[in-house]
Specification:
3 domains, 13 helices, elongated
Length: about 300
């Protein structure tokens, strides 16, 4: 069973802006992501169809969850869901009485289990980064050690004299380039255009497969979220508060996103934060696990409240 935004919106009890906007890390090019929690009417709940849980839309980018699905994700300490209850109030788009009650009881969901979920997400980001860097290095190595240069020289010798290939290379974004030295005094623009076009086409033909294996150009964004997650988890375990807006470390996080740190330096910092996270789990005063029975009563209260 699926619904349209127009069908879900009237039954939404809580809707907020999430992602970079709620973190305070948005740029002029950042998307505006939203998440919402829905309680469908009884006649739509009591059917033989498979229970509706989640639906995602684009333009606008909004993700709807049933109340049961959302609360189960809160219980599991899912970072991208748990933060819904802790976004700054100015990020709240819609909040009914039921949504207000849910947010009021948000502390119920916080526990030491957050160590495993937040650390897990952070480690996933770290794995993506290291895997991406390995693929980048491997691709660059293959590009510079194969016989691409010979192919380019053959192409060049068939079209012009006085041109020599000095170097071929890949930029950090995986774009192929070639350095030429010219010892001829006369060449028309049309001839020059023909030569450069032929070389460019040949370069692309020889690097398409490698480029397809290149990691996303967002490794620095993964790194920013790695550190954001680690900072949030440590704060949560040490203070009992989940701080979504990252004003306190915004400058540092954006510097990571902008590529202002060497990877080796970031890996050292990440390792230190992982160690601190482990220590924070040991000393945290948070409850070991969320009180399931109390949360079940809250769910029943919200579902039966008009």
């Amino acid at each position: 069973m699926s619904y349209t935004i127009q069908e879900l919106q009237p039954h939404t009890i809580y809707q907020v802006v999430t992602g970079s906007q709620s973190y305070g890390l948005a740029t002029p090019h950042s998307d505006i992501d939203q998440k919402a929690i829905v309680i469908l009417p009884l006649q739509q709940l009591f059917t033989l169809n498979k229970e509706w849980e989640t639906q995602t839309f684009h333009q606008p980018d909004i993700e709807f969850h049933s109340l049961k699905k959302a609360m189960n994700l809160f219980l599991a300490q899912n970072p991208t869901m748990l933060e819904l209850l802790f976004v700054p109030e100015e990020m709240i788009i819609k909040q009914t009485t039921q949504g207000e009650i849910l947010r009021k009881h948000r502390q119920l969901f916080l526990s030491k289990k957050c160590y495993y979920s937040f650390a897990g997400y952070a480690k996933d980001q770290l794995t993506r980064i290291k895997s991406g860097l390995e693929k980048t290095n491997e691709t660059a190595s293959r590009f510079t050690t194969d016989n691409v240069k010979k192919r380019l020289e053959t192409c060049l010798s068939n079209q012009a004299k006085g041109f020599t290939i000095k170097n071929i290379y890949l930029t950090q974004n995986g774009i192929p380039g070639v350095e030429l030295s010219v010892s001829t005094n006369q060449i028309t623009l049309s001839q020059l255009h023909k030569i450069t076009t032929s070389l460019s086409n040949l370069l692309r033909a020889n690097t398409n497969k490698q480029k397809a294996k290149m990691p996303p150009s967002k490794l620095s964004k993964h790194a920013m979220h790695l550190f954001r997650l680690l900072h949030m988890a440590i704060e949560l375990l040490e203070t009992g508060e989940l701080i979504v807006n990252r004003e306190k470390d915004k400058e540092f996080l954006l510097a990571i996103k902008n590529g202002e740190f060497r990877w080796e330096e970031l890996f050292v910092k990440a390792d230190r934060l992982m160690q601190r996270l482990e220590m924070s789990k040991t000393t945290s005063r948070l409850q070991e696990t969320p009180p399931t029975e109390e949360i079940n009563r809250l769910y029943q209260q919200l579902m039966t409240r008009e």
